[in-house]
Amino acid sequence: MSILWPELYFIRHGQTDWNAEGRYQGSKDIPLNDIGRAQADLNGKVLADLLQRSGRSPSDFSWHVSPLGRTQETMQRVRAAFTEPLPEAVPDKRLVEVSFGVYEGRLHAELSAGEMAIAGERTAEFWFFRPPSGESYEDVAQRVISFGHELHGPAIIVAHGGILRILRRLIEDFPAERAVNWFPPQDCVVHFTGGKSVVYPAGQSWDD
């Protein structure tokens, strides 16, 4: 929260089969499914439209992506919406999803019975909950802060739902309880500027 964050456009990766099944995937390299690929394509069109509406060039931004396969493919599909040459999309391990450790691959509903609370039922203390062999949101926030310190201008980021939750806490000062219970959408572009965010859904009409 000590960073003066630049303008960001953030896109979460599209749906995977584990997303559809309600499984924790975290740092596991699970690929997009067909729905996720379509979401990524639409998100690229939304991003291109937003930049055009604001009179911005995609070259005004640095481009950053989590190195996992689902985010790499999402980034490739987003970039396909642009016809002009684009800056290189730089992979950064600090943008990898929160690791759920031994719980990766387990169903949300299965774990919510006692081992790990599901989104919508978490307390503020969940921000500091670290699964066995995994990470807490606070752990990952520290690597996101490290990433933020190296941003020297506006950026476009393709990463994960947990990273988006963390950015809303860091940039907008979301209370921890609200951050860990918010459901990050996969069919939208999130625009951060001036310490606030606006969510632009794909496939819907919206005004500036």
In short:
With 208 residues, the protein is α/β, with parallel strands linked by helices.
Q: Give average pLDDT, whole number.
A: 96
SSE arrangement, N to C = EHHEHEHHEHHEE
Q: From the alpha carbons, calculate the radius of gyration and give it in angstroms.
A: 16 Å
The CATH architecture: 3-Layer(aba) Sandwich
Strand content: 5-15%
Secondary structure tally: strands: 6
Major sheet? 6 strands, mixed
Q: What is the helix content?
A: 25-40%
Main structural class: alpha/beta
Q: What is the CATH third-level topology name?
A: Rossmann fold
Care to describe what's here?
The structure is a single chain. The protein has 208 residues and is an alpha/beta fold. It has one domain: Rossmann fold (3-Layer(aba) Sandwich). It has helices at 17-21, 34-53, 69-79, 108-111, 137-149, 161-172, 176-181, and strands spanning 8-12, 62-65, 89-91, 155-159, 188-193, 196-201. A six-stranded mixed β-sheet has the order 3-2-4-1-5-6, sandwiched between helices. A hairpin with a 2-residue loop joins strand 5 (188-193) and strand 6 (196-201). The longest helix has 20 residues, at 34-53. The radius of gyration is 16 Å and the shape is globular. The two termini are 27 Å apart.
